[in-house]
Amino acid sequence: FTKEKIPKNLDAIIIGSGIGGMTAAATMAKAGKRVLVLEQHDVAGGCCHTFTEKGFEFDVGLHYFGQLHENGLLKVAMDQITEGQLEFVELPQHFDSIVIDDSSKRRDYALLSGRTEMEQNLKKYFPDDAKAVEEFFKLMKITATRIHYLAILKLIPQWFALFLLKSGIADFCSSIFRLSGSNATEMNNRLTNNKDLHVIFSYFFYGVPPKDSSFMINALMLHHFKRGAYYPKGGASEIPFHITKVIQKYGGSVLVRAPVSQILVDTKGTAYGVTVKKGDEHVEIRAPVIISNCGIFNTFQKLLPPEIQVKPEVQSRLDMMRPGKASFLLFSGFDATQEELDIVPTSIWLFKSNDMDAMMDEFFSMSKDEAPENVPMVLITFPSAKDPTSQIRHPGKSCMTILTMVNYEWFEEWKDTRVRKRGDDYFSYKMRFASYIFDWACKHFPKLRDKLVFQEAATPLTNMHYLSCNRGAIYSSDHNLDRFYAEAMARNRCDTPVKNLYLSGQDIFSCGIAGALHGGLLCASTVLSYPVYIDLLFIKKKLKWKKAREAAKLAKQKQQ
Question: pTM score, two decimals?
Answer without folding.
Answer: 0.95
